[in-house]
Write a structure and sequence with these properties.
With 398 residues, the protein is of the alpha/beta class. The protein has two domains: 87 residues, Urease, subunit C, domain 1 (Roll), CATH 2.30.40.10; 300 residues, TIM Barrel. Helices cover 36% and strands 21% of the residues. It contains 14 helices and 15 strands. The chain has an eight-stranded parallel beta sheet. A seven-stranded mixed beta sheet has the order 3-2-1-4-13-14-15, with no helix packed on it. Helix 4 crosses helix 5. The protein is globular. The chain binds zinc ion (ZN).
Length: 398
């Protein structure tokens, strides 16, 4: 039994009253104005805000710090022309993947995960490219990191066929191999295929693998400036057919911004039926999912870091408060109410999208918490500073 108390804490729902949070064996045992028990360890929050730790719903963790290797061509193509060149930018970004080697990838991964700890980002859905150039090098590096960091950051490794399944002969077999060696989630990027039939086949094949290995699904859908792309709809329909309710997410879904209103409404109805949410990364492309409209419909949305210094995005430091700060501008979410929602989108609502259980600061919830250096969520996003303390499974990790 290990126990910890956080004293003098503000929380998001106890107003100006300071509370004490008692943690026993990795779970929140009690939240009250005075916990009298003796405990092993104490933290003084000094009247600052304590919340759930941060959840990063989407990160290409195998690609972090590879912009120099990839060169500037891909990033220029991806970000110019309203994302109409996304297809060719992905081809450019793939050119250096024959250099993929677990040995150098793991060094970059560790650097990014040390930042995750620093910024209280304790849960990451991490994508690793799986194709005939990258082979399983990215997956192996992420699985190794998952073990190394298991007490600090929960990594969910996504086997992600970045260059397609129909287009990339051999990718299907490699994704299956990745699942056999321990990948947690089945990925996909159906819009990258050249025909509607191949898009559907990509969705079907990856979802059937998820069924075979009993895995959750995360697909990058319609990540392109094309109002005609409907692969997200294909995925949702397949999820409903499979009965995989609550076990799949749509990532990016940027073309949604260009859909006619009627199409968007139908998509929302299907999403609710499938109990699916969306992860959006508005800072890494000129288009983004219709975040506020989805939330208004009762569909959960989380934010992701997406990239850290790779062929698609130059910056990033695994700081989800910085991601929320950028999101506030790009999504025009600056009212008090919207800022509360943004905070949910990097904590509890993101957890809901990812099908994580217990990520809530309530009695019985997981003791994955941050003690911030500010008194409210507006200041937290405003200054996006690192937390004073980070707690994972009831243990102080920073
Ligand atoms: Zn992405």
């Amino acid at each position: 039994m290990s126990s910890l108390i956080i004293r003098n804490a503000l929380t998001r729902n106890t107003g100006n009253d300071l509370v004490e949070i008692k943690i026993v064996d990795g779970k929140i045992n009690e939240i009250s104005t005075k916990v009298s028990d003796k405990v092993d360890e104490e933290i003084d929050a000094k009247g600052m805000l304590v919340t759930e730790s941060f959840v990063n719903g989407h990160l290409h963790l195998d690609k972090v710090y590879t912009l120099d290797r990839a060169g500037q061509k891909a990033i220029e193509e991806y970000n110019n022309g309203g994302m109409s060149n996304a297809l060719s930018s992905i081809a450019s970004a793939a050119e250096f993947k024959s250099e993929y080697d677990e040995k150098w990838i793991i060094k970059n991964v560790r650097k990014a995960l040390d930042l995750a700890v620093k910024f209280g980002n304790t849960h990451i859905r991490a994508f690793a490219d799986v194709d005939t150039k990258a082979k399983l090098e990215g997956v192996k590096a992420l699985l190794k990191a998952k073990e190394e960091y298991k007490d600090k950051v929960t990594l969910e490794v996504v086997a992600f066929p970045q260059d397609g399944v129909a287009r990339e002969q051999g990718a299907y077999e490699l994704v299956e191999e990745a699942l056999k060696i321990g990948a947690d989630v089945v990925g996909g990027i159906p819009w990258i295929e050249f025909t509607r039939e191949d898009e559907q086949d990509h969705v079907d094949k990856m979802c059937e693998l998820a069924r075979k290995y009993n895995k959750d699904i995360s697909m990058l859908c319609d990540d392109v400036g094309d109002a005609e792309e409907r692969t997200f709809e294909m995925l949702i329909k397949k999820v409903i057919d499979m009965g995989w309710f609550g076990r799949a997410t749509g990532q990016h879904c940027r073309a949604m911004m260009l859909y006619p209103e009627n199409q968007f409404r139908k998509l929302c109805a299907l999403l609710k039926r499938a109990k699916m949410g969306v992860i959006s990364d508005p800072h890494t492309g000129p288009l983004h999912a219709r975040v506020q409209d989805l939330i208004k419909e009762g569909i959960p949305v989380g934010l992701g870091q997406d990239d850290i210094n790779d062929a698609y995005y130059t910056f990033g430091q695994n700081n989800m408060l910085e991601v929320a700060f950028l999101g506030a501008h790009l999504l025009r979410m600056v009212s008090d109410k919207d800022i509360e929602l943004l905070y949910d989108m990097v904590t509890t609502m993101a957890a809901k999208v990812l099908n994580m259980k217990g990520h809530e600061m309530v009695t019985g919830g997981n003791a994955d918490l941050v003690v911030l250096n500010c008194k409210d969520v507006k200041q937290a996003i405003w200054y996006h500073e690192e937390p004073v303390y980070v707690i994972k499974n009831g243990v102080i990790i920073k």
